[in-house]
Amino acid sequence: MAFESLTERLQNAFSKLRKKGKISETDLRGAMREIRLALLEADVNFTVVKNFVKTVRDKAIGADVLKGLNPTQQIVKIVNDELVAIMGDQAVDLNKSPKIPTIIMMVGLQGAGKTTTAGKLALKLKNEQKARPLMIAGDVYRPAAIDQLVQVGQQIDVPVFQMGTDVDPVEIVRQGLQKASEEKNDYVIIDTAGRLQIDEKLMDELARIKALANPNEILLVVDAMTGQNAVNTAEGFNDRLDVTGVVLTKLDGDTRGGAALSIRAVTGKPIKFIGQGEKMTDLDVFHPDRMASRILG
Ligand code: GDP
């Protein structure tokens, strides 16, 4: 289960405090040490953990919680609020173009869940906004990727524009956008190539697609199971492409929590959606407060 160990360790730290009744500064320091270790073990970014612990301690001391009633309850609240804050406070909507189509470019490493998420997002827009999206198959390096997107399109009844694997992806995107304009599609979702790791050639290609398509949204898809690597990947893509949002996939797995808790703080970019399963309906808007509640258990 996601966050299992983090949740358990945080709850242990709080239950130790609760047993004390009155809490001394030493008790608080001990609890903060446990929280710090729990976060580090969950693979949360080191600087994020350091700032988190300092903020929680300063707030607890500043608010004189140790002298008040229910000090543990107040500390739990401060931790909760701070978890919400590092994840971005509030849900952030998709950027929308004032005139159709809104163009969304999906980027990310191979296997992160780009193609699946493109389909999930198309279905969500269709179901919730009665949108008429078009998906463009821009991953020409993996022939199976195009077939996969075509299959996803059939499954959710969303058209897919593709030109096979022998055409420059920038040209595919150009023609795909022309098609969308003719068909008056209100959303265009561009699936792009991924690699096992970030390389220059891939980044160049994505930058060229970005320059041509001028997308309203560049969604970086990252696998929550990869913890710190997800954060490093996010930094790499963001430095080069200035992404507008992140989709965190595979939160139905047993991720420790590092990616969810670090990405916003490290990159400054909001997590907009979370993938929680392999089905096309398994995509949800990311709510920092709900995620914090889930982590605290
Ligand atoms: P791409 O290479 O980035 O396009 O990745 P794919 O879309 O092909 O996804 C890789 C694998 O991850 C596939 O088996 C997907 O079904 C799976 N996947 C994607 N998102 C999720 C998710 O949120 N949860 C789970 N459990 N699996 C996912």
From TrEMBL:
Q: How does it assemble?
A: Part of the signal recognition particle protein translocation system, which is composed of SRP and FtsY.
The Signal recognition particle SRP54 helical bundle domain extends over 2-87
Domain of life from the UniProt record = Bacteria
Q: Which UniProt keywords apply?
A: Cytoplasm, GTP-binding, Hydrolase, Nucleotide-binding, Ribonucleoprotein, RNA-binding, Signal recognition particle
Q: State the name under which the record lists this protein.
A: Signal recognition particle protein
Q: What catalytic activity is recorded?
A: GTP + H2O = GDP + phosphate + H(+)
Provide the protein's localization: Cytoplasm
* Record keyword Membrane present: no
All copies of the AAA+ ATPase domain together span 100-278
Provide the species name.
Pediococcus cellicola
Please specify the portion of the entire protein covered by the chain, as first and last position out of its full length. Answer: 1 to 297 of 477
Any idea where the SRP54-type proteins GTP-binding domain is? 101-297
Query: Which Gene Ontology BP annotations are present?
Result: SRP-dependent cotranslational protein targeting to membrane
